[in-house]
Each structure stands twice: as structure tokens, then as C-alpha cells.
Write a structure and sequence with these properties.
The complex is a heterotrimer of chains A (about 300), B (about 250) and C (about 300). With about 300 residues, chain A is mainly α. Chain A has 12 helices and 2 strands, in the order H-H-H-H-E-E-H-H-H-H-H-H-H-H. Chain A has a single domain, classed as ABC transporter involved in vitamin B12 uptake, BtuC (Orthogonal Bundle), CATH 1.10.3470. In chain C, helix 3 packs across helix 4 and helix 10 runs antiparallel to helix 11. Chain C is globular and about 55 Å long. With about 300 residues, chain C is mainly alpha-helical. Classes of the chains: A mainly alpha (about 300), B alpha/beta (about 250), C mainly alpha (about 300). Chains A and C meet through helix 4, helix 9 and helix 11 of A and helix 4, helix 9 and helix 11 of C.
């Protein structure tokens, strides 16, 4: 009933639309992994990023690249403030995880109310028009935004993973995520690693929110709903597994965007809650961060009886 | 003597770490077995697997012929499997007496509907539980501490509270995780004689302990664990005398 | 007079909501933000049963509470089974998802709201009767929760919050307990919903949105988590403060955000400056002197 061309078109557009969501999920999963916080205040970071870009471009008439810089700066600033004024203080006080939860939630709500006060509740966009020039590639409509978003997302993903694996501070972040006590033993500053994770996640959010805001309308409350997608992807993808979160986000995004084919559009937003529900019911085993396997394999192999089949 | 606890092929790995590797172990009623082995040998993990706190990858656990495999921790406890914790895990917000009452057997006040609809029954159970708690406190020499906050009680007595709390459930098998670490003097002797009496009453006891003197004085038998496996079983003397085990223990 | 009645009813409803929410998050240690949604389920359930189902209002209100209770069990069972964190995430999904559904479905009146809800009282009855009814139910709810938290059940809740593993290893079923706590708390929220629906006779999804979650959290955190009177004080303060803001004559567009900032800002201030709230609950559980007091009984 659909021609293959239309299917390819939908897939392509869905993939492009999904790119921002992938970055939101990456940022959420990163903070969860390194800082061990379900950071609902990520919505606050996203809101600040969007309205920073909005103020610079739509209100101030600055060019697009300045808007991106404003989004990055706003997001990074918010991330640092959260970590230094919020999480660090709560950590020092040994606040319960419930307390930290409430804190992140309340911060994201506070920021959305502040945004409502300053910018009103109406949907806004960074550029006056959401339409981007389209070129036809083999019968598929490819907009400049698609290319921009996919390109930027790919670069951001590669840069993030390279940073985590190659840079000293990135490796420190992974070490802290794996075992905070052991990391402290080897002289890795947990505070610095967590701050770095927040800043990195902030920058990813800034980029993603800028991309999102050049293509879709944003309200002060949008970020909380966008964040739910990231949470669902992180849970299904396996907590502590950044790659898993990214891949799951791609799949979920494709399914959600392509769902126009199967279900009425007003229920499309509902799919997200369905995903979340599925994630909780079917993929609940994520709370305990998985143990890194490699370093211990040898120990285990040495201890195992030779005749014992693997997996016991 | 009849078999009390029967463990067959219990295995568990976390990622690449094997904490239990096809463990077979029997505890007999009235006997005290000491689990020894170096740190990380899997002794506490064994307790966690048997008590249902951690889910094993495979293997079965039975208590007095009743299969416990797959049961949640609270159901195993109700069927008579009691345990204590290396890190005590007392309830700091409750007094000593109330800590014990949490362990009371047949406590109907646990169901919200029963609490509201059958207040009289709950009230009687509360009285009975309190009576039993006072008896257990007396027996463990803690009667002077009943209304103290657990945090304000000396450490040796805190260890005793952990044991007393487990006794409230009238266990048939008792797993004691390092009951003696950091304990000396009167509390030491009380725990020692208490464990002996409990065994004499027909309870099977399994003790994890680094204090070799305590194990030798108390246990009828020793089990040596290493890397999640049972390496040897016999009298404590024979295990201590085994050069191979001593080397593993001290990690040479 | 009508204005004062309205304030009194809203205050009493907020007392039920805040106390039951305190029961869930404070005593139960169950983090949920979906309390307003169970309030909504009770309100819509009762309103629809009475309006379209022809059920007498007096029966519809408890039925609405039971629907909210049943819904809360459905939410709690899958998430509580695993870990507390999942209840929070699940509750966010439920809070946003069910409101989304109410907005999109025809039979709830959609985003425009549900109108013509039958009133509990016959026309012409003094509304003071309704005030008395709601206040009486609020007092009963508070007493019930206070009684539970001071009973052996409350003692067990305290132990469960202290150490869930040790609790389970003593033969206590933490999962069943959490589901029961969540169900009772949400059922009471549903009761408040029914009481709301048949007095104000109009419901709209916006009344139950995440602003309500923030307001309830504020009542509990500012008032004092895990104390009986804290949430009551919180509910009264939070009902009076926004009313005071209304007198400032702000434009309607600013009023909502200002209230939101006030709620969330207050929580943050209290979290960092006085985390125990206005009325601090002690760290040690104190129950009724049950046995001593009843020595002659049974």
C-alpha cells in the first residue's frame, strides 16, 4: 500500500528527526553512568539552551552560528551551576537519593516556569521559518536540515566517544563510573570527573536543543517531554551502556516517527509513554550498573575448573 | 541427624567474577559448621544466595525437605531460614525491642487491610510478639537494653541484637555472618554459649568467621571455600593442618 | 461567603492530598510525582459514573476512590517489584501519559473539560454542609494515616526505609507493603478528586498537571516530611500564599508561572536551608504505647 519510495522517504526523515533525540539520550546516559544521578534537571539545561539561542537569534537578530554558541554556553553554564551548587552540596550532605531526585525534578520545573514568565507559554522557534531548502536525491526529498542534523550528530557522537576513550579526563570519567572508590584510590578526582561529565552532557544538550529548535516549535514545558524519550532509551538500552542508549534511541525514534503509517497522529505522542511502560515492565534490570567484564575475565578463568562449561 | 539445609549446584557469576561455582553443601540439624576461606572466597555471597537476597544463576536450595529455589528472601525467612549480616544492618530508627519485633513470626499487622479491619487480632499478635521479644532479649542478655536506640548500644551487644532479631522468626537454620568480628568480653561468651544452645535445640548453624579460635572452639565441622568453590570439608583441626589450604588462605 | 467556603474546601482537599502524598513519599519512601493523576482519576471516575452512568453521587465518590486505588496498584506492581527508582520514572510517564489521554479522548470532555457534573447536594442546600463534610473527611484521613504510622505497621515501614534487605531477610514482604502504601495514598487522592468534582462540577486536565505535583511536593517538603502536622501546615500555607498573589492583580499570563516559581523556589530554599521542613519529624520511630496502655485488655 506504500510505494518503496515513500517508505525510504519516511525512514530518511525519521532518521534525521531522531538525531537530536539520540543526543539527548547520550547526555542523559552519560550523567547517569558517571555521576549516578537520574538527572531530570537535564530538562532545565535543554530549556536554557533553547531560550539562549532563541534570545540571540529570534530576539537579537544574531546569525545562526551565534545562536549555536549561545545554546552551548547556556547549557554548559546551567550544567556547571547544577553540579557545583546542587549535586555537590547534596553529595556533601549525604542527601538520600530521593532528595536528589526531588531536587532535579524541581529544578527542571522551576526553569520551565521562569521560561514561561520571560517568554510566555507560546511555542517558539529559533529561526522565523521551520522550512529548509530541499534537494531531490534519487526521488527522496533531502532537506538541508537533515544533512546538518545528521552530520552534527555523527560528529558529536564520534567526538564524545573519542573524548571518553582517549583523553585523560575522559578516561577518568569512565574509571569513576566503573568504581568510584577504586578511582579515588588511584588519585582520580571524582569531583572533577563528575563536573566534566556534566559539562560534556551540557554541550551535547546545547547542540541537540539548537538543532531541535531550528526544526520544531518549543515551549517551556517541551523539554520535560523530550527528556522522557531519553530516559526510555537509556533504560531499554541498559543503564551504564552509552552505546546501548544511542542505538535504542535510534530504533525508538524510527519507530515513533514512522508510526504515522499505522496510528492516528494525535496518538503518536502517546507511543512515548508506551515505550516507557515497556521499558519498566520488560527491561527493568538496569539499576545495578553492570560490572566491567574485561579486567576480571582472567581472574575468573583462572579460578574456573577446566571441565566446567562456561555460563555454569 | 536429619539434613536441615541442602544446597545443590549453586552457581552465580557477576559479569566475569564467579562468586559461587556449583556449590554442594549439607547442614545437619544440631550441627555447627564453620565456613572458612580468604576474603573474596564467596562466603558472604553463599549466604546471600541461600537466603534469597541474591538470585543464583543455577542450583537448588532446600530446607528440611522443602524446596526454596526461586523463592523471595522473605518467604525463605518465614519457612525458617534465619541469617545475620556482617555489617549488622540493624534498623537505626527503632529501639532494640522494636528491632526484634520486626522479626516476629506470624505478624498479622503487616497487612494494611488486617490492621484496619481486625484490630483486635493485630493487638493480640502485638502482645504475643512483644512477649516473645522480651524472652529472646532475656535469653541473649539484652534485657537491660530493650528501650535503648540501637545506635547507642555497645558494639558487641549490637551483634547480639542481630542474632536475637533472627531468632524472633524461630529459624530452623541459622546463617551467621562474622558474628564475632570486633566482639570481645562478655558478649563474646554470650554469643558462643547462645550458638551452642541453639544447636542443641536442633537448629542447624552455619558460621562465617575469621576468628579461627572461635571456629575451632565452636564448630563441629569446617568447610573451606576458595574462589566460589568448596575445596575441602572436615574437622576444623584437619583443615587448619592442611598446608595447601593454609597457603591459599594467606595467599602465598 | 461563597469565596470563603471555596477556600475552606480547597484547603481541606489539599490537606487530604498532602497527607496522603506524605504517606507515600515520606513514610513509604516511594518517590512518585503522579499524585495529581490519581486525584484526577478519582475526580473523572466519580464524575463520569454519576453523570453518564447514573450512579448516585454518594456511591460514585467512593467508587472513584476505588478506581484510583486500582489504577495505582497497576502502576506500582511492575515498578516497585524492581526498585524505587522505577516508580519515579513510571510515575512521570503516568502523570503525563494519562493527562495526554484525557485531553485526547472524547468521553472525558477532552482538553476543554468535563461539564455538567451532578452536585452532591440538592440545589438550595447551604454549602456549609459540604464544607463540613469535606473537612470531616480530611480530619478522618489524617487520623487514619496518623494511626497507621504509629502502629506496628508504621514501625515496619520505618524498618523498611532503614534497610530493605534486612527487612526482607526477617520474613517481611517489602514489595507488598510498598504496593499497599501506594494504593492507600493514591486511593485517598482519588477520594479528594471525587469530592472536588461534585462540588465545583467542572473538571479540566490542566487542573491536574505537573504544577500540582510541584505544589504537593512543596506542601510536604516545606511542611515537614514524615510528620503528621507538617503537610497540613504546608497545605494551608500553600493555599494562602497563591491567594495572596491573586490579590496582587497580576495579569493572568503571569499568575500561573509566578505561582509555579513560588512553589518550586520554596522547595529549593527549604531543601538547602531547612531540609527537615517547618515541622521536623524525629529520626527515631515513636509508636503508641499500645501494650502498656491496654494492659487489662484481651
Amino acid at each position: 500500500m506504500f510505494s518503496p519510495l515513500i517508505l525510504v522517504q519516511i525512514l530518511w526523515t525519521s532518521l534525521a528527526t531522531t538525531s537530536c533525540f539520540v543526543l539527548f539520550a547520550l547526555a542523559f546516559a552519560l550523567v547517569l553512568k558517571v555521576n549516578r544521578v537520574f538527572n531530570f534537571a537535564q530538562a532545565a539545561i535543554m530549556t536554557v539552551a533553547f531560550y539562549a539561542a532563541f534570545t540571540a537569534v529570534a530576539r537579537g537578530g544574531a546569525p545562526g552560528w551565534a545562536g549555536l554558541l549561545a545554546a552551548l554556553a547556556g547549557a554548559a553554564f546551567m550544567a556547571v551551576a547544577l553540579q557545583v551548587l546542587g549535586f555537590r552540596a547534596l553529595q556533601r550532605r549525604r542527601a538520600s537519593s530521593m532528595f536528589v531526585f526531588i531536587f532535579t525534578l524541581i529544578v527542571s520545573e522551576l526553569i520551565s516556569y521562569v521560561a514561561m514568565l520571560l517568554f510566555g507559554t507560546w511555542p517558539a522557534t529559533i529561526f522565523p521559518s521551520l522550512f529548509w531548502p530541499v534537494t531531490m536525491v534519487g526521488g527522496i526529498a533531502v532537506s538541508q536540515w537533515d544533512m546538518l542534523a545528521l552530520g552534527a550528530t555523527a560528529v558529536a557522537l564520534i567526538a564524545t566517544f573519542a573524548f571518553l576513550h582517549l583523553s585523560r579526563i575522559g578516561q577518568a570519567m569512565t574509571a569513576v563510573a566503573d568504581n568510584p572508590d577504586l578511582a579515588a584510590f588511584y588519585g582520580i578526582d571524582r569531583n572533577r570527573a563528575q563536573l566534566a561529565a556534566m559539562v560534556l552532557a551540557g554541550l551535547i544538550n546545547g547542540l541537540a536543543m539548537f538543532l531541535y529548535g531550528t526544526r520544531a516549535q518549543v515551549q517551556p514545558t517541551s523539554a520535560i517531554e523530550l527528556l522522557l524519550f531519553a530516559i526510555a532509551a537509556t533504560i531499554i538500552g541498559g543503564i551504564g551502556n552509552l552505546g546501548g542508549a544511542v542505538v535504542t534511541a535510534v530504533v525508538l525514534g524510527l519507530v515513533q516517527n514512522a508510526s504515522v503509517l499505522f496510528i492516528p497522529s494525535e496518538w503518536q505522542g502517546f507511543l512515548l509513554y508506551f515505550f516507557l511502560f515497556l521499558a519498566i515492565v520488560l527491561f527493568p534490570r538496569g539499576v545495578h550498573l553492570p560490572v566491567r567484564k574485561r579486567p576480571f575475565r582472567t581472574v575468573a578463568a583462572a579460578a574456573r575448573r577446566p571441565e566446567e562449561p562456561a555460563g555454569g | 541427624m536429619p539434613v536441615s539445609l541442602e544446597v545443590r549446584g549453586l552457581s552465580k557469576r557477576f559479569g566475569g567474577i564467579v562468586v559461587a561455582d556449583a556449590i554442594d553443601l549439607e547442614l545437619r540439624a544440631g550441627r555447627i559448621v564453620g565456613l572458612i576461606g580468604p576474603n573474596g572466597a564467596g562466603k558472604t555471597s553463599f549466604f546471600n544466595l541461600v537466603s534469597g537476597v541474591v538470585r543464583p544463576d543455577s542450583g537448588t536450595v532446600a530446607l528440611e525437605g522443602r524446596d526454596l529455589t526461586g523463592m523471595k528472601a522473605h518467604r525463605r525467612a518465614r519457612l525458617g531460614l534465619g541469617r545475620t549480616w556482617q555489617s549488622l544492618r540493624l534498623f537505626p530508627s527503632l529501639s532494640v525491642l522494636y528491632n526484634l519485633l520486626i522479626g516476629a513470626r506470624h505478624y498479622p499487622g503487616e497487612r494494611l487491610a488486617t490492621l484496619i479491619l481486625e484490630h483486635g487480632r493485630v493487638h493480640r499478635a502485638e502482645k504475643a510478639g512483644r512477649q516473645r521479644a522480651l524472652e529472646v532479649l532475656q535469653r541473649t542478655g539484652l534485657d537491660g537494653f530493650a528501650h535503648r536506640e540501637v545506635g547507642s548500644v555497645p558494639f558487641g551487644q549490637q551483634k547480639l541484637i542481630g542474632v536475637a532479631r533472627a531468632l524472633m522468626n524461630e529459624p530452623r537454620c541459622l546463617l551467621l555472618d562474622e558474628p564475632m568480628a570486633g566482639v570481645e568480653g562478655q558478649a563474646y561468651r554470650t554469643i558462643q554459649s547462645l550458638v551452642r544452645t541453639l544447636a542443641a535445640e536442633g537448629i542447624s548453624v552455619c558460621v562465617v568467621e575469621h576468628n579461627v579460635a572461635f571456629i575451632r572452639d565452636l564448630c563441629d565441622e569446617g568447610v573451606f571455600m576458595f574462589a566460589g568453590r568448596v575445596l575441602a570439608r572436615g574437622t576444623v583441626e584437619s583443615l587448619i593442618a592442611d598446608r595447601r589450604l593454609t597457603e591459599l588462605y594467606f595467599g602465598t | 461567603m461563597e469565596y470563603l467556603y471555596t477556600i475552606a474546601i480547597l484547603m481541606a482537599l489539599n490537606v487530604i492530598l498532602a497527607s496522603s502524598f506524605n504517606f507515600v513519599i515520606g513514610y513509604g519512601g516511594l518517590i512518585s510525582i503522579a499524585h495529581p493523576v490519581f486525584y484526577a482519576i478519582g475526580a473523572y471516575g466519580s464524575a463520569l459514573l454519576a453523570r453518564d452512568g447514573g450512579v448516585p453521587v454518594l456511591l460514585a465518590i467512593p467508587a472513584g476512590a476505588l478506581i484510583a486505588l486500582a489504577a495505582s496498584v497497576l502502576v506500582a506492581l511492575p515498578s516497585v517489584r524492581i526498585s524505587g527508582d522505577y516508580l519515579l520514572i513510571g510515575s512521570i510517564g503516568v502523570q503525563l501519559g494519562i493527562l495526554e489521554a484525557i485531553k485526547n479522548v472524547g468521553w472525558t470532555g477532552g482538553a476543554g473539560g468535563l461539564t455538567n457534573i451532578p452536585a452532591l447536594l440538592r440545589p438550595g442546600t447551604d454549602h456549609g454542609v459540604y464544607v463540613a463534610l469535606v473537612v470531616a473527611l480530611a480530619v478522618l484521613s489524617v487520623l487514619l494515616l496518623h494511626w497507621i504510622t504509629r502502629s506496628g505497621y508504621g514501625r515496619a515501614m520505618s524498618a523498611m526505609r532503614d534497610d530493605e534487605l534486612a527487612f526482607a531477610a526477617l520474613g517481611r514482604n517489602a514489595v507488598a507493603m510498598k504496593v499497599a502504601i501506594f494504593a492507600l495514598g493514591c486511593g485517598l487522592a482519588g477520594l479528594a478528586g471525587g469530592l472536588y468534582a461534585h462540588y465545583f462540577r467542572f473538571l479540566a486536565p490542566a487542573q491536574f498537571d505537573i504544577l500540582q505535583s510541584a505544589a504537593l511536593l512543596t506542601m510536604v517538603v516545606v511542611g515537614g516530611m514524615r510528620s503528621t502536622f507538617g503537610p497540613i501546615l504546608g497545605a494551608i500555607v500553600l493555599e494562602v500564599l497563591p491567594q495572596a498573589i491573586t490579590f496582587l492583580d497580576l495579569p493572568a499570563g503571569l499568575l500561573g508561572p509566578m505561582q509555579g516559581i513560588l512553589f518550586t523556589g520554596l522547595v529549593l530554599v527549604f531543601m538547602f536551608i531547612r531540609p527537615q521542613g517547618l515541622i521536623a519529624a524525629g529520626s527515631v520511630w515513636r509508636g503508641r504505647a499500645l501494650e502498656e496502655g491496654h494492659a487489662g485488655q484481651s
